[in-house]
Specification:
single chain; 186 residues; alpha+beta; Jelly Rolls; 2 domains; four-stranded antiparallel β-sheet; 3 helices; elongated
Length: 186
């Protein structure tokens, strides 16, 4: 029993050390990749528009999208190469979304000035779409930047979340049993 206790205590300590190392990795800021797209566009009433270029992403790439508008619009990141029609009406968009609803990676409602960050969970090719459902035209400016991280935060945080309590339990029980054994010896 003593060997099992020591083994579990050492496993718990190793898990806590691993979680600490992973937590330190999340503190390292991502480096700018150099890809940046800026633009200004006018969306006609009840239309959508594809913006920027298609990008191939993996979990180590973080996208930061800054959007400024004079009204409320919707912003989509879709797991498809740039769509054939770069501009269309609301009916065409609804048909497109019915056919490709499983490809939507992110949908955000944008009010005036927003910053959207996105990190994919796998390897994807993404396109960006702005949708104006308003009965009036909307002015929008955007800037899309890509950043590379050493380790994808979207993968590290769940690992830390699950392993740190397990490590704490294993280490805690080992410390408690060792403390009780030392009390008995004295």
């Amino acid at each position: 029993m003593r060997r099992l206790n020591v083994a579990l205590g050492r496993i718990g300590t190793a898990l806590l050390a691993l979680c600490l190392a992973l937590a330190i990795l999340t503190l390292i800021p991502p480096a700018k990749l150099g890809f940046s797209t800026k633009g200004k566009t006018t969306l006609k009433p009840r239309t959508y528009m594809s913006i920027g270029n298609s990008l191939n992403l993996n979990p180590q790439i973080l996208l930061k999208i800054e959007l400024n508008t004079n009204a409320t619009i919707k912003f989509y990141i879709i797991n498809l190469p740039r769509i054939e029609t770069e501009l269309g009406n609301l009916t065409q968009f609804n048909k497109f979304m019915e056919e490709n609803s499983d490809k939507v990676l992110l949908e955000e409602t944008i009010d005036e000035e927003n910053v959207v960050e996105y990190t994919p969970e796998g390897i994807v090719t993404v396109s960006f779409i702005l949708l104006n459902e308003n009965p009036h035209k909307v002015e929008a400016t955007y800037e899309i930047e890509s950043f590379a991280s050493i380790a994808p935060t979207v993968r590290i945080i769940p690992v830390i979340t699950y392993l740190s309590p397990l490590g704490a339990i294993f280490t805690g029980q080992w410390i408690l049993i060792e403390f009780k054994n030392r009390k008995k010896r004295i």
